[in-house]
Amino acid sequence: MKNENNWGFDTNAIRAGEYRDPATGAHNTPIYQTATFSFETSEDLTHAFKNYDDPNGPNLYTREGNPTIDMLQDKMSVLQGTESSLAMSSGMATVAAAVRLCAKSGDHVIVTDKLFVISRNFFVEECPEMGIEVTFIDMLDLDSVRSAIKPNTKALFAETITNPQMCVVDLTGLKEIASDHDLSFIVDNTYLGPYLLRPVEYGADLILDSATKYLSGHGDAVGGILCGSEEHIAKARSTMSSFGQCISPFNAWLILRGIRTLPLRMDRHSKNALALANMLKKHEKVDWIRYAGIPESHQTQLIENQFPKGCGGMLSFNIKGDPNNLHQFMNALKMVDMATSLGDVYTLAAARVDYGLIRVSVGCEDEKDILNDFSQALDAVQI
Ligand SMILES: *Cc1c(COP(=O)(O)O)cnc(C)c1O
Description:
Radius of gyration: 22 Å
Strand order of the largest sheet: 1-7-6-5-4-2-3
Helix content: 25-40%
Order of helices and strands: HHHEHEHEHEHEHEEHHHEHEHEEEH
Strand content: 15-25%
Number of helices: 14
Bound molecules: pyridoxal-5'-phosphate
Distance between the termini: 55 Å
Largest sheet: 7 strands, mixed
């Protein structure tokens, strides 16, 4: 879908894809909470059956399409700058869909070795069962990405900021490799969302977001959005129907509502995370801290170029001494919630003793309240 009005990103976050309800004039987008749609004549129903997979055709059944879901998809296409998009039942559904679009049995894909853990499970457990060969590579090292390419390689799969280590990949460098070898370039942009980074500007062919995170922003719905060319998304839509991974109209509505405040929230997430990162960096009990907003020197230029509006709300850090100090710290938190997930207005933290770090999704509360809670919890740690 095109940005027909030539509006800026923030206006599109609020207005793109949405319209006054033609049936009732309702100003806010209705939740079309219906499984099926009924018709005036039998001929109309027959016509709808024939065109069931046409996104512009009549609504037939919510697995194939629904006006609330359509509005979410149209908004996301405008925000990502892609021809089309598909809302799905979760972020993981979009990971699987993106890989299936680019690789079939006998093909090979190259995947970042620093990866969201459930995505890793998908590549380790499910891809071999589908006959898809996978190589995990450190995508910070472009030479090793090049040397992993085989005659049957079909795609590169990267995360814009890797989970949970917070490494930033060079999207321009990866796209160059993908173009040289005619590979599809798949980008999981969950950690930033389209306000902070639009992977299409770096030549990504397929972009996926776990809408559960920043797009929804309130931790109240699970969903995912896959964005790409009309051709790719049409194929993904038909596969989704067979696998039954459609989103519910209510979740689509919650995510649609969340996206309207995405720019406001991302600015606050970035500001709060930068303040917390700077506080932790100076703290005597903190061993190291990683946040894209205070980059290691060799990445300064890359990060300035890729994230001009801010670096989002995700950071990780480690505490000096025994790994169990992480639990001491976590148990001393008073306001910050101990939970997995991210991109929520609430600040969430999770200790990953296996990685030797605490991952923080910095929320939108008052900066001073977040900093105070971290500070008092660090005070409680006995090193
Ligand atoms: C959460 C997450 C996913 C999966 O999304 P769900 O909506 O939880 O299925 C994929 N990639 C990244 C980077 C994530 O953080």
